[in-house]
Amino acid sequence: MAEITLTNVSKRYADGTIAVDNVNLDIADGEFVILVGPSGCGKSTLLRMIVGLEDISGGELTIGGKEVNNLAPRDRNLAMVFQNYALYPHLSVRENIAFPLRMAKVSESEVTQRVDEAARVLELGELLERKPGALSGGQRQRVAMGRAIVREPEAFLFDEPLSNLDAKLRGQMRTEIARLQKRFGTTTVYVTHDQTEAMTLGDRVAVLRKGVLQQVGTPRELYNSPVNLFVAGFIGSPSMNFLPATLTGHRLRLPIGEVDLPSELTAGLPAEGRERSVIAGIRPEHFEDVSLIGEEARHGTTFSATIDVIEWMGSELYAYFPVRGADQGHQAGMAELARELDQEGVRSDTDESQVVARLDPTSQVRESVEAQLWLDVRRIHLFDPETGENLTLPPGDPLGAGHRNGDGDAHQGVSGPDSQTGQGDPLQKHDDAYGAPGSTGSAATGEHDPSGETEPPRSGGAHRA
Ligand SMILES: Nc1ncnc2c1ncn2[C@@H]1O[C@H](COP(=O)(O)OP(=O)(O)O)[C@@H](O)[C@H]1O
Ligand SMILES: [Mg+2]
User: Fold this and answer.
1) Could you give the CA distance from residue 152 to residue 166 in angstroms, rounded to a whole number?
2) Nearest residue to 228 via CA among 451, 412, 384, 28
3) Please, which residues bridge with residue 159 across strands?
4) What's the mean per-residue pLDDT of the chain?
5) Torsion angles phi and psi, residue 247, rounded to 5
């Protein structure tokens, strides 16, 4: 087991794409860190640099205190599990799991002992003599994990290992991975674009946008104190509502009415009396049906809204209603953010925004009828419309200092070479380094980009997490 440290790590591909931009991240020994962000933000690239399948263009990577920038993957002793876990179809489950040990010339008795132990932990004991073709998707994924476990690596690296599974199985495997990680206490870096996995699996979550690290914190910290619009919109489901608003001193004018903000919220704002445009962020659960609020009511404001659509989920109720007053600038900005977050855009053809409120399921609100709703004003976030920065984080909050939105170029859409599949040659050069056949990338096959290696570390926007 080992700690992993990234210092100003960058990746520039041969075509000039900056996939990872000056990332600083300390992953403690035994820690479970989730790397999350939308498709194309550089997650796989970062993971592949850690494991050694991709050259590092700038900065320093250390594992267990030792600089490993130029160390071959097999010498890093890390185990990687991919989305497209490829198993050898002609080998039994036992031999698939044993494969990396065979490559490392481990003795027969130790192979048996380690494979049996991994099979026991993963509940694969009954299946050891089967071929992969006779396994379900979840069982195959467990075999791929078994192959990672037997190597007793310094760290586990997962690249969206569950995204090919159906929703139910994904939920089960999520719990299983969390349980395994706790049991082994092995340093783990887990890449996903799924905010639910990010929130539920790890000790800490690192949010990446266009190659730039936005914020690193516990799921709670990210949820309660997002440093900017991007993190606020990414973490949480349904997403935070963003409304155009005007702030004058402590007074906030929202499309649903005017409220006086508590001083805790405005403490970090510059004391200017003049009007200023802001974006108000309100989580769905900070609304409630007025008739279901007691003593708490004094901490908020009430307003009426005509509910468009109701989704009753049994344990909660989602009420959707439109609000007016969004100008074109707001709409354009929000549509852009929604695109980046892979979410549905707001209605950009009108001056309306759609708001979702999460209400108690006993609420009697009705579709197409005016409802009386309550908003908890203590929980409003205000964001700068230009920079996206959260203006309402307590001053001195370490998470709030200097973590502005990165503004690197967008390079969306193209998936990296990690999506390669196929049954690779078992004797592939670096197969033994991460124990998954058929998933090698350019670095593993020896194609280096000399120009990438001389790229100096880029400055600006760096912070240590
Ligand atoms: N071999 C490559 N050459 C050039 N650009 C690449 C290569 N691999 C990935 N990229 C680009 O780098 C960016 C980050 O990719 P990737 O790390 O795969 O993102 P993620 O895993 O977050 O979806 C994307 O813009 C992608 O198109
Ligand atoms: Mg990826």
Assistant:
1) 29
2) 384
3) 82, 191
4) 83
5) -110, 130
pLDDT at 405: 34
Pocket of ligand 1 (CB under 6 A): 13, 15, 17, 19, 37, 39-45, 411, 414-417, 442
Q: pLDDT value at position 344?
A: 59
| pLDDT digits 0-9 by tens, 364-403 | 999 999 999 999 999 999 999 999 999 998 765 544 333 3
Among candidate residues 284, 295, 289, 291, the one with its CA nearest the CA of residue 379: 284
Task: Determine contact, residues 79/151, Cβ cutoff 8 Å.
Answer: yes
CB atoms within 10 A of CB 203: 15
**Ligand 1 pocket test: which of 411, 419, 420 has the largest number of ligand atoms within 8 Å of its C-beta?**
411
132/142 Cα distance (integer angstroms):
11
449 or 336, which is more confident?
336
pLDDT at 465 over 70: no
Give pTM, 2 decimals: 0.82
Index of the ligand 1 atom closest to the CA of residue 39: 23
Q: Is the dihedral of CA 117, 109, 132, 147 positive or negative?
A: positive
> What is the C-alpha separation between 174 and 180, in angstroms, rounded?
10
Exposure pattern of 285-313 as b/e (b: 16+ CB <10 Å)?
Answer: ebbbbbeebeeeeeebbebebebeebeee
Q: Cα(first)–Cα(last) distance of the chain, in Å?
A: 20
pLDDT > 50? residue 94: yes
Question: Residue 122 gets which letter from DSSP?
Answer: T
pLDDT for position 168: 82
Q: How far apart are CA 97 and CA 435, in angstroms?
A: 9
Distance between Cα 2 and ligand 2 center (Å) = 24
